[in-house]
Model the fold of this input.
Amino acid sequence: MSPVSLLHDPHHDGSPLYVSDEAPELGTSATVRVRTSADDPIEEVWLRTTYDAEPVYHPMTTTTVGDVVWWEGRLPVHNPVTHYRFLLVRSGGEEQEWLTGAGLVDHDLPDAADFRLTAHPPAPDWGRDGVVYQVFPDRFARSAAADLREVPDWALPAEWDDEVVFEGSDPRTPMQLYGGDLDGITEHLDHVAAVGADIVYTTPVFPGESNHRYNATTFTEVDPLLGGSEAYARLSAAVHERGWRILGDLTTNHTGDTHEWFLSAVDDPRDPHRSFYYFEDDGTYADWMGHGTLPKINHANLDVRHAMVDGPDSVVGRWLQPPYSVDGWRIDVANMTGRLGAIDVAHEVARTVRATAAALHEDPWVIGEHNHDATGDVDGDGWHGTMNYSGFSWPVWSWLRDPASPARAFGRPVPVPRRGGVAVVDTFRAWQGALGWRATATSWNILGSHDSARIRTLVGGDAAVHRVAAGLQFTMPGVPMVFAGDEIGLEGVNGEDARRPMPWHRREEWDAQTLATYADLARLRREHPALRRGGLRWAHVDADTIAYLREHPDQTVLVVARRAAGGAFTLPAATAGRHLFGSEPGGADLAPGADGVEVPRSPGSRLDIWELDSE
Done:
């Protein structure tokens, strides 16, 4: 397929250049704008929204600035979530297109991918503008105190250099305990700073009879193997002393089968905790995906809701308060929480978690784990955003995957196919349209986590391609979430193998160039508002190259990502650009020519960033 330039296409997104207020009050209105080319013979643009589900059309006015036509209209904010799209009219009405969140469409289509504006309060600025660093406590770092702790009967102790047991069929996999602890994290916060992160997110810290602790035995204390509640308070204090934030990890969908609530329910069918779970008359119970060790919580029961998510004395509430003072939560299995068969109270649970957090914390952040389609779950009154596997990870993986990589499939029975740039951009567009701009911008850009293969393994060990992936993670809309070890090139074929201990004592094995790349990208994202708050306009795409603009009222940034060597190409209507970053050595400023600006050829994989002059 021949290269395609996209800069002349009509465009709108939810960023400040196109929407006057991303969180307007109910009953007010917002100004929305569409950008088109002066060479495009568009005669009219109509703003179509829905008023109590009834379509309503509003005219738009035009202003021409050079070769750009700006169409502007007022969008009434009548419903908490306002859906809207634009009708573009040419040739006296004989040619019509819809501009929606998923792009231009030349036929009528449902409202699912419409742009949306929500009147619910937005995510906190510190979350939107930050960089998240994910830590799996057992494998990150051991303090000296870890050597003094007695290993519990369920655990299989491992030395820090022992090979990780990772096959799901091996019963040792969840039992292998390396002994990382919370004071170990506190002692290595300088490394987190070196990566450029300012939000520490740990996987669960509550006691659980596994190395991952998603099978909690209680929510009243932090696991003594991690140093106990006092160590958690020390970590939180150290994080806050740096001006950073800390996020907890809570499984609201299930507990472990050794949890105190569940044991009480099993011992006595008349025990009040029995209603916390889905028990049948014969004693069987619902669990998570067939795992009997993970009994499912019944959120249709108000007592368990009060115990877990509702109010200052709930699990959610308690740990938001001093001395722990977590700044928000990542909710595990958020997509399944409150859902079982015909029962669906998921939105009620999400709203309650959010309300509890908001009542106890000035600006909390609540992220829901959802590795599929979070459409409808992130409209703004519950989870602020999601771990965006579908909208970010999957398309990046499919573009950069080495077909010979041993990386195991995640979330599907076969590995992702290797796809070209056009298909990948179509995927980005589809998910941004489905989730909405604000939810996309608030969700996490993930290259890998404790549940998936490492990005270095997925790209076949190619460090240059890994750095391209990191560039996308930090420059696409969304919040970068770095899984500890990605920045130094750790590998892993699946989620369990990805949990290899951090090799603090083998720094000669670290990929120093990739670590510097992460630090540079984090610094650039912090310095340039376009990379944090700017819109996204696709500029050029071919099989091996994806280029886009991040546009903000204060600046415009051009990002060019190449998965392989590629030729030069020209971007029309672009201007001179100052080179800010290259993932590989080299790179130069861009000079304007008669037809625009020429982006130079590349001999291999790389990602470059330029700040463009004002047009």
